[in-house]
Amino acid sequence: MRELPVEITKDPKIRLYNKLLDHEGSSWQHGIMAVDWTDQENDLIVADYFAMLSADLVGAAYVKAEHGRRLSPLLNARSDGSIEFKHRNISAVLIGFGQPWIIGYKPAKEFQNSLEDAVDRWLNAHPDWLTIPGTQSSQTIPTYGFSENRSPLWIGPPPTHSNAPSPVDLARTEMTARKFDIAGRDARNRKLGDAGEEIILKNETDTLRFAGRRDLADRVRWVSKLDGDGAGYDINSFEPDGKPRLIEVKTTNGWERTPFHISRNEIETADRNRDTWHLVRLWNFAREPKAFVIRPPLDAYVSLTPTSFLASLH
Fold this sequence. Notes:
11 helices
C-alpha cells in the first residue's frame, strides 16, 4: 500500500481557519456541544474529509482517529463522537452531490443545510480534485475488457427501489441534486465524460473480439470524438450478429441514482431508433466503474424533467 501524506494543515481552508473563534457561552449536554456547527468548522471538517477520501481513492494509508485528534482543537474541542458523526453526515451529502465517499463512514442523513454549502464551496475551490495524478479519473483510464489479467466491466440492471434501495433519504438526495445542479456538473466535466466513453468504447471492441467478430470490432466508431456531439449518441457499435448498437454514455463518480442530463436530440434519437439505441450509465467511476443499460422508451425507467426553455420574443 502506497503512503500518501495527508497533513490536513496544508489545506488552504485549514490554514485560513486554524484559529477559530472561541464561542463563549457554548453549552454541553452529555458531552456533545449544543450549538450548530459554524461555517468555519464545516469548512475545516469537509477539507479534512476530502484529504482522507483522496488517500482512500489511491489506496494510501491514513488513520481516521489521528485526523480526529488533529481536528478536535480546531473545532471548539468537539467530542470524538461528534466529529465521527459529522464525517458520516458528509458521506450522506456527497451521495447527493454525485461524489465518491469513504465507505468506512456510513452515511448519516440528519445534517445541517450549511454542511451542503460547505461541500459545495470545497468542490468549487477544487474543480479538478479527481483529476490529480494517481486517481482513476485522471488521464490514465482504467483497463477493462476480456484480455488476460483484466476483468470485464460490470453491467447490471437499472436500479429500482427493490434491487438497489437508497442508503440515505432519497427525497433529500434528489433535492440536493436539483439545488446544486449535480447533473450539470457531470455534463460540464468533459474529462469525466471522455474517460467514460473511452471505457465503453474499449468494452465494446473487447466484447466483439471475444465473440470472434474482430471484423466488427475494427468498425466500432467513437462518434462524439470524431464527428462531434450532434448524432444523438456517442459510440456506433454492433451486436455479434452485426445488428447496430447506438450507445449514449452518461458517466458519474457518484452512486447509481445520480441524476444526469439528456438532450432533446438524444431523446428524439432514442425514440427513432428504439431497436438499436442504448443509454449506458457509468457510475462509481472514481473507484471501480460499474454500469447499467436503459433502452427506449426512456420514461419507463426515468422521470424526464424540463430544466430549461428557449425564449423567443413575440
